[in-house]
Sodium/sugar symporter
Amino acid sequence: MTAGFDTWDYVVFIAYAILILGVGLWVSRDKKGHQKNAEDYFLASKSLPWWAIGASLIAANISAEQFIGMSGSGFASGLAIASYEWMAAITLIIVGKYFLPIFIEKGLYTIPEFVEKRYSTNLKTILAVFWIALYVFVNLTTVLYLGSLALNTILGIPLIYGVIGLALFAAAYSLYGGLSAVAWTDVIQVIFLVLGGLVTTYLALNTVSGGDGFIAGLTTVFEEVPERFEMILDKSNPEYKNLPGIAVLVGGMWVANLYYWGFNQYIIQRTLAAKSLKEAQKGILFAAFLKLLIPLIVVIPGIAAYVMINDAEIMARLGDVAAKNLPSLEQADKAYPWLLQFLPTGLKGLAFAALAAAIVSSLASMLNSTSTIFTMDIYKQYINKNAGDKATVNMGRISAFVALVTACIVAPLLGNLDQAFQFIQEYTGIVSPGILAVFLLGLFWKKTTNKAAIIGALASIPIAMYFKVAPKGWSTSSLFVDVPFMDQMGYTLLLTMLVIAIFSYVQHKGADDEKGIPITKQLFKTSPLFNIGAFAVMIILTVLYALFW
């Protein structure tokens, strides 16, 4: 057994790379006599079918922070981290039923564009700048860092070369083809992602069971570490600060999920590119069912790795390779790359292709959305208001390239980041409650005013920082001492909504705002297929939480 790649692993991985690049460049080609316009580049000509939307949503979402970061959290805390995935399934249903009808009716390119139509250009610009900074300095950099960490662990490739290689791979087709290239290659990426992930899970559990198979391995893991299968953590659990018990179900998790799936450009952009609202809703439903499967391929391997390194017999069976890049509670993110070392020749290439698919598809999605926001909300608004299709598309490519280069410079500086998934959630969680408050009240409360929304968005940062920073230096009698960050998000959302509501009421004396959105029952009417699917998702989730409470 070797830690590196053998010939067949390289063959499988190179075949995957050629397939993705080939499909990406093929769908990117300009049709004869047609100049690619903004709708073609940023919204895939509004032609995506439901299955492409669903697959692309998952491919954009599942990246290094899930495969590596979530497996690391599974190693450190267990199945409880799966709440991010399982509750996302319900969130997707809510987004499909209540958010999408409004977004698609308004014909949006970007989420900041909704802010302009509901509030003002000033608030749109503030949020557009925030999102560009978040995508470049948090999302892109973390995905590049974790991806290069995997390359370093498995193949010994230096971090900086891994960062550059992944960046070039994603750029090769996404910069030229736009969302169309990203979405259609995502359909292939998600097949590699799921199959490769399942192979890794199967072989990890088969190793734990001593060759007795998947079910025996799952049973063994459950018997060895039953505490790792608790979804609702007790206060005595060291990971309670990250996943604070019942608050995961009724508190701040909703802030993280509603913000991410409802108002995150690189996620929602796929649904805006749908043929129709019904097609977008079917895609959302498909993604919700896929979400139920994801913990099996990104959390269970981390728990299996924890059992393996604490079992002397298994470690002896694995040989000298097992001592390389050994994960620990302090360096939990090494769990998934460590597992990949033990896969047989050929399958190691497939599993690594799955990891690469997750990384590259997310990078491509983030790049496309960063360029969409910059081009449509900054460039066309302030720099070149009369930009034609050619100038707009070219600026999209240039801005994506600049974002990628910046992320490549910053990524190696992340150093010894542990549990990267939690890092992303915690630092996004400082600003996401304020953004979510602005959107929720803007969508569903007609009295919300632009001035109040700006005050609320700005006030949300010091509110969030109070919970995060101030109390830790105070006495134990201080209010809200050491509040788990998920609870911080919940409190920040509620207080920000209160600020916006008060200022809106004072400004208009309780009257509706002129830009308020009229809400009708007909607007949120969904098809029988969507309703049945949504009910099935909720039943499955109820069973899962009942089993692993």
Residues 347-383 form the longest helix (37 residues). The chain has 24 helices and no strands. The two ends are 39 Å apart (CA to CA).
